[in-house]
Amino acid sequence: MTGQEELTLLGHAAKFASAYHGLSKLITTPFPFPLVQKTRTILLVWLFTLPLSLVDDAGAPYEDMIMIFFVTYGFLGLEYVSIELDDPFGNDDNDFDNLGMAQRIYEDIYMTLFDNDGKEAAESLRKTVSTAM
Questions:
Q1: How far apart are CA 112 and CA 18, in angstroms?
Q2: Which residue from 63, 69, 72, 132 has the fewest beta carbons nearer than 10 Å?
Q3: Angle at CA 83, nearest 5°, toward 78 and 84?
Q4: How far apart are CA 23 and CA 20, in angstroms?
Q5: Mean pLDDT of 100-115
Q6: pLDDT (mean) for 11-31
Q7: pLDDT average, residue stretch 49-63
Q8: What are the Cα distances from residue 79, in Å, to 32, 37, 45?
Q9: Whole-prediction pTM value?
Q10: Mean pLDDT over residues 96-105, rounded?
Q11: Which sign does the torsion angle of CA 65, 66, 72, 77 carry?
């Protein structure tokens, strides 16, 4: 590997480490519970008072019911999306597949080493990773 290729590889590794550190900070930073509680309370009060504000503008009652349904559905849907996105690195079905991404990165590095430095270097990496786990 030439010096320029090595510097490029180290630059990519530094960017990856920086991104990992940023995600680690995101996971460990607690979200203030009073803020969550207050926004949910305001959302529910607003949704329950919405029909009262539409009484004077009422056309046909079914039009108001349809509009209230879609507004409520939309806002409660956003609330449930925010609940799911609260911890995107957990073990739920819709969370990020951290181990799968790490496996793909490892396979890419392995194939790059295999193509550039040969089978011995790639197997050395495999042994190093196997003993580390």
A1: 22
A2: 132
A3: 95
A4: 5
A5: 85
A6: 84
A7: 79
A8: 16, 12, 14
A9: 0.54
A10: 82
A11: positive
